[in-house]
């Protein structure tokens, strides 16, 4: 069995473990009303984006999300939440040592003792969600489960949906499509971008992601019979109707958005194998970007 396959299958149990940790970590993560920014690179940035939007939706305080290399030195926050699976990503370390130095910082990582644990004031280690595969799956969703639980989300339904997403058949055969589009609204926009990244990394697929209402503002022009449009969480149904009218196939199982992501991770592995690719070792990628 490929590493990524077993890692995908482990997710619902890890979400429960992360949710159980959340009450004890309340003092490390942003307090209600505290302005915060969440940073990361690649997958971690997409999770940061989802968390930031979710925190604002819950009226817990102004929350931005930034790619670590783009953290503005001209803004100030009560706390910086840095997400890095390996704890070695150069841009995250530079952000914590540069613009983040004057603010309280907490790192969420899978590796105890990694450089990010020294760069941040506090660290949350999710070592039970660490991965062998280059392509991130379970660390990202487990970090999000922790952050969702901290915002007050009960994850029982998400965990049940995640288990269902592991056992049910995929809604489509990905090899039938040439273009994959993922749509979200609110906090699921970050997950739409993460879904697109999974197919791009694992299967070298043509993927795009948009806030649902933005899809009609140009991107729908290339939709057609070879396009799959997948809704992550509730999106405006008129957008999906317009995509279907352009010839696209519509998917989205109505599961919790993290569980939808599990289905998409499985689809990425299936498509990679259909194309003769190794989803554990995608082209041109390494587990962490470490710059000189």
How much helix is in the residues?
A: 25-40%
Write down the domain tally: 2
The CATH class of the largest domain is identified as Alpha Beta
Query: From the 3D coordinates, which CATH architecture of the largest domain would you assign?
Result: 3-Layer(aba) Sandwich
Structural class comes to: alpha/beta
Low-confidence regions: none
Element order, helices and strands? HHEHEEHEHEHHEHEEHEH
- So, the CATH homologous superfamily of the largest domain? Glucose-6-phosphate isomerase like protein, domain 1
What is the fold-level CATH name, i.e. the topology of the largest domain?
A: Rossmann fold
Major sheet attributes? 5 strands, parallel
Give the count of helical stretches.
Answer: 10
Amino- and carboxy-terminal Cα gap: 35 Å
Summed over residues and divided by their number, the pLDDT gives a mean of: 96
Q: What is the overall shape?
A: globular
Q: Strands of the biggest beta sheet: in what spatial order? A: 2-1-3-4-5
- For the CA atoms, what is the radius of gyration? 18 Å
How many E strands?
A: 9
Content of β-strand:
15-25%
Describe this structure in words.
- The protein is 39% helix and 16% strand.
- The chain has ten helices and nine strands.
- The strands form two sheets. It has a five-stranded parallel β-sheet, sandwiched between helices.
- α3 (43-57) links the parallel β1 and β2 (63-67).
């Amino acid at each position: 069995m490929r590493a990524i396959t077993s890692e995908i299958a482990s997710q619902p149990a890890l979400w429960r473990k992360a949710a159980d940790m959340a009450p004890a970590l309340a003092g490390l993560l942003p307090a209600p009303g505290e302005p915060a920014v969440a940073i990361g690179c690649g997958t971690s940035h997409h999770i940061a984006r989802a968390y930031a939007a979710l925190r604002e939706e819950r009226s817990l305080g102004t929350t931005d999300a930034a790619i670590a290399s783009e953290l503005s030195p001209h803004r100030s926050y009560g706390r910086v939440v840095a997400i890095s699976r390996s704890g070695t990503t150069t841009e995250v370390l530079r952000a914590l040592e540069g613009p983040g130095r004057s603010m309280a910082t907490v790192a969420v990582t899978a590796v105890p003792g990694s450089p990010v644990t020294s760069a941040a004031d506090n660290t949350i280690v999710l070592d039970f969600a660490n991965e062998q595969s280059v392509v991130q799956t379970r660390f990202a969703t487990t970090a999000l489960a922790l952050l969702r639980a901290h915002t007050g989300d009960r994850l029982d339904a998400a965990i049940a949906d995640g288990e269902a997403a592991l056992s049910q058949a995929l809604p489509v055969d990905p090899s039938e499509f040439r273009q994959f589009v993922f749509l979200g609204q609110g906090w699921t926009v970050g997950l739409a971008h993460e879904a697109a990244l999974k197919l791009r990394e694992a299967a070298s697929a043509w993927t795009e992601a948009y806030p649902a209402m933005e899809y009609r503002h140009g991107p729908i022009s290339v939709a057609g019979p070879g396009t799959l449009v997948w809704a992550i969480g509730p999106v405006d149904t008129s957008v999906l109707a317009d995509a279907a009218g352009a010839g696209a196939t519509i998917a989205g199982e109505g599961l919790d958005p993290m569980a939808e992501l599990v289905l998409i991770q499985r689809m990425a592995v299936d498509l990679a194998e259909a194309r003769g690719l190794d989803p554990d070792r995608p082209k041109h990628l390494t587990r962490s970007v470490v710059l000189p």
